């Protein structure tokens, strides 16, 4: 191989790597939020149901952002009504909600919401009714929120700490692994600093 040809493979490799990095920057990394991140800027319709609106501490309006929820910690479950794991875990997540709501020290500190990835409002309503979900669930029919969260599989849990100054930070981001209401709540309290 002559001297002119020796540098070509290295030059091609550098160009290919550079294009791949630029593509990732231009189109997003499509990764779920990790500990220490802020959530992507998403807007969710304010619940029409006054009970759900009151639970989240929201005023009337069209949309809200998760850091506007009146709590110190928000636990988000990305679910699908067709996910067998989501269906199986629903009673235990309902129990988590009950444990929090029955504890006067936690009731105003921690809120739960669910986001139905690819689920229409009708599908979310069916899931909520079938599994007696007591906390607010939201439709993400066009997968727009799901894409912002890295197109994670379900169920996926995010823990977000909301600071007094309105800033927020992800302290938990994980697929499944819901091994019971009490251990999960204890983990959320430890990781968020509420305990």
CATH C-level label of the largest domain: Alpha Beta
Within CATH, the superfamily of the largest domain carries the name Glutaredoxin
What sort of overall outline do the alpha carbons produce when their principal axes are compared?
Answer: globular
How are helices and strands ordered from N to C? HHEHEEHEHEHEEH
User: How many discrete domains?
Assistant: 2
What's the mean pLDDT score?
87
Strand content: 15-25%
CATH fold-level name of the largest domain: Glutaredoxin
The description of the largest β-sheet is: 5 strands, mixed
Number of helices: 7
Fraction in helix: 25-40%
**Tally of DSSP β-strands:** 7
Structural class by secondary-structure content = alpha/beta
Order of strands across the main sheet: 5-4-3-6-7
Tell me what the CATH architecture of the largest domain is.
3-Layer(aba) Sandwich
Explain what you see.
The model is unreliable at 15-28 (pLDDT under 50). The protein has helices at 3-6, 8-27, 50-56, 84-101, 121-130, 144-148, 181-192, and strands at residues 44-45, 63-64, 73-79, 110-117, 137-140, 156-162, 168-175. It is built from seven helices and seven strands, in the order ααβαββαβαβαββα. The strands form two sheets. It has a five-stranded mixed β-sheet with strand order 5-4-3-6-7. The chain has a two-stranded antiparallel sheet with strand order 1-2. It folds into two domains: 1-30; 32-192, Glutaredoxin, CATH 3.40.30.10. By secondary structure, the protein is an alpha/beta fold.
């Amino acid at each position: 191989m002559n001297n002119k040809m020796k540098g070509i493979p290295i030059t091609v490799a550098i160009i290919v790597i550079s294009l791949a990095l630029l593509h990732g920057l231009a189109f997003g990394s499509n990764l779920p939020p990790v500990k220490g991140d802020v959530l992507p800027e998403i807007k969710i319709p304010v619940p029409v149901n006054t009970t759900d609106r009151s639970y989240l501490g929201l005023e009337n309006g069209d949309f809200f952002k998760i850091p506007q929820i009146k709590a110190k910690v928000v636990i988000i479950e990305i679910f699908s009504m067709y996910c067998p794991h989501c269906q199986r875990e629903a009673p235990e997540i309902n129990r988590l909600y009950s444990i929090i709501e029955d504890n006067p020290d936690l009731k105003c500190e921690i809120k739960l919401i669910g986001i139905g990835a690819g689920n229409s409002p009708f599908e979310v309503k069916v899931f909520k009714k079938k599994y007696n979900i007591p906390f607010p669930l939201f439709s993400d029919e066009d997968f727009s929120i799901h894409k912002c969260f890295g197109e994670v599989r379900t169920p996926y849990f995010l823990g977000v700490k909301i600071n007094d100054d309105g800033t927020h930070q992800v302290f938990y981001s994980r697929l499944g692994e819901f091994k019971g209401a009490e251990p999960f709540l204890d983990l959320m309290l430890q990781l968020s600093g509420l305990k």
